[in-house]
Design a protein that fits this description.
single chain, 39% helix, 6 strands, 22% strand
């Protein structure tokens, strides 16, 4: 067997084992995130329902890699990606002393967090869009990093210092909920609907009809 074949086998063994371990870490993180979201729901639901009995607050599982946290007109969708990722060489993660000391720390599992209108999911409106709130990355040592909107873009930026625990998971969920609540559904510009076809007219009376979403873009702080 040639030296190159030996090298290929060695690298495959090392990376395959590393990625499998990171995958398991990500599954565990996703489970803890779901449990934390359940606790947040249990904490706020009785207090909200006491004053606003028609507000629905729920958590539902959708397979092994997705769950939804619904609070009235908003639903946050948490999706775990099953692959393991590395950042480009020029990314600040790879320039950190933490990763430089051990390059294996620079491989991550990923959990994506989106905001949808609850009715978009309820009525299966296939053309409606959700907005990415954050991406949560977890590495072999259970350290994490987030990128996203507003606080999610800088609160958890130091992967060497950030270890995943119940407090950090709750902060992530709370920030995503607050961000979602800050943005309302705006009436479409009248210019967009000055004329409609017969087909579009029929769509208005169908819950799965015209595409709907919150306004595009995000408020700058």
């Amino acid at each position: 067997m040639s030296e190159k074949i030996e090298d290929i086998i060695s690298r495959l063994d090392d990376k395959a084992e590393l990625k499998q371990l990171i995958y398991q870490k990500t599954v565990d993180a996703f489970t803890r995130l779901r449990d934390c979201a359940e606790n947040v729901k249990k904490e706020i639901a009785p207090r909200v329902l006491e004053s606003s009995p028609h507000v629905e607050i729920s958590l539902t599982r959708h397979g092994d890699f997705e769950f939804h946290l619904k609070f009235s007109g908003d639903t946050i969708v948490f999706i775990m990606h099953t692959n393991v990722f590395a950042f480009p060489p020029a990314h600040r993660i790879n320039k950190s002393d933490y990763v430089k000391k051990d390059p294996k720390r620079g491989y991550f599992g990923m959990i994506q967090i989106y905001n949808f209108l609850s009715d978009s999911l309820k009525y299966n409106r296939m053309n409606d869009v959700g907005f990415l709130l954050a991406r949560l990355y977890v590495n072999i040592e259970d350290h994490f990093y987030t990128e996203g909107k507003r606080q999610m873009g800088f609160l958890f930026g130091d992967v060497g210092q950030q270890e995943l625990n119940s407090d950090s998971l709750q902060k992530i969920i709370e920030q995503c909920m607050l961000y979602s609540l800050d943005f309302d559904l705006y009436v479409p510009p009248v210019e967009n609907l000055k004329m409609i076809t017969v087909e579009q007219k029929s769509v208005f009376n169908n819950p799965r009809g015209l595409s709907t979403s919150k306004r595009m873009g995000f408020r700058a702080d």
